[in-house]
Specification:
Protein name: Nuclear control of ATP synthase 2
InterPro entries: NCA2-like
Structural class: mainly alpha
Helix content: over 70%
Order of helices and strands: HHHHHHHHHHHH
Organism: Penicillium concentricum
Number of helices: 12
Number of strands: 0
Main location: mitochondrion
Radius of gyration: 46 Å
Distance between the termini: 37 Å
Largest sheet: none
Subcellular location: Mitochondrion membrane
């Protein structure tokens, strides 16, 4: 290729660059027209992406963290519940009053003896509705009379209220179980947002890290190339009788060493600059002789390029 260029010469700049310049102009104008025509849609898409990111962070990370902190601090607003707090107490108190009133209105249930209200209330708390069930069984023998008198309907309504209380007791047990595992549910609700955020940050870190790795690899290549040039100068230089290199080669060695030193200075965190500077000083000490200088290069190679 170089022989062909020397023989025929390079083509003119117009011949070399007309195709990429034309493609750039055509694609650039088309891109500008596309951006101009779709400007509002592009802006709206960017706004939607930003709002989606903010909403995701707020709803799936910040809000679950606040609820989790409230759970740890035993905040009442953060408690899990599937029924209202005082619902069971109110329904049970209503059932107790209904049973007490029913027994008082039916003297035949306690044979004229004054009904013990406390005993009735305690029985209702334990789920015992024996007086009501006895009256219900009697009214079933003559349902028409019991319906007209109203006792049968009252007994049915009391049993419905008793069923409601039993259901609420079962629900309260489930509610207590949920509250005992509230911290676990908080962590479970927080996990998806944390995982997605961690995966996103990991992906961004790997993307930036790959670019940083490419830059660092290029810098290490430049360092290796500089050490090769220094070794080439020493091996191809004219050695004087005292074992040192000639002044011309020594000057080239100083230039290459200074270039190496300046290059290492711009590499962030790759190596200790002061240590590398000491090695450069040992390398430039021509009084040590070429053999020791080559050993210094070998030391720098395994110290900084391994």
């Amino acid at each position: 290729m170089s022989l062909f260029i020397r023989r025929h010469g390079r083509p003119s700049r117009i011949v070399r660059y007309w195709l990429p310049v034309s493609a750039a102009l055509l694609s650039g104008s088309a891109s500008m027209r596309f951006l101009t025509n779709r400007r509002e849609e592009i802006i709206q898409s960017i706004v939607n992406i930003g709002s989606t990111t903010i909403d995701f962070w707020g709803n799936w990370v910040v809000h679950p963290i606040r609820k989790l902190i409230g759970t740890i601090r035993h905040d009442e607003k953060s408690e899990i519940a599937i029924m209202s707090k005082n619902s069971l107490l109110a329904d049970r108190a209503s059932l107790e009053r209904m049973v007490v009133d029913f027994v008082r209105d039916r003297p035949d249930l306690h044979q004229g003896v004054v009904a013990d209200t406390t005993a009735i209330v305690n029985s209702v708390k334990e789920g015992d509705l024996t007086p009501v069930l006895k009256a219900y069984e009697r009214d079933l023998r003559s349902p028409f009379v019991g319906t007209v008198r109203g006792d049968l309907i009252r007994a049915l309504l009391i049993q419905i209220q008793k069923t409601k209380v039993d259901v609420e007791i079962a629900i309260s047990g489930i509610d207590a179980l949920l509250k005992s595992q509230e911290l676990v549910f908080g962590f479970v609700g927080l996990t998806p947002g944390i995982l997605v955020s961690f995966a996103t940050m990991r992906w961004l870190g790997s993307l930036l890290g790959s670019r940083r790795g490419l830059r660092k690899g290029k810098q290490r290549h430049e360092l290796k190339r500089g050490l090769r040039n220094v070794a080439r100068i020493l091996t191809s230089s004219e050695v004087l009788s005292n074992g040192t290199v000639a002044y011309k080669d020594s000057g080239q060695l100083i230039c290459e060493a200074e270039a190496l030193l300046q290059h290492v200075k711009i590499i962030p965190g790759s190596m200790q600059y002061e240590e590398f500077r000491e090695d450069i000083q040992d390398l430039l000490n021509v009084q040590n002789g070429v053999d020791k200088q080559l050993r210094v290069i070998e030391r720098m190679r395994w110290a900084y390029l391994q």
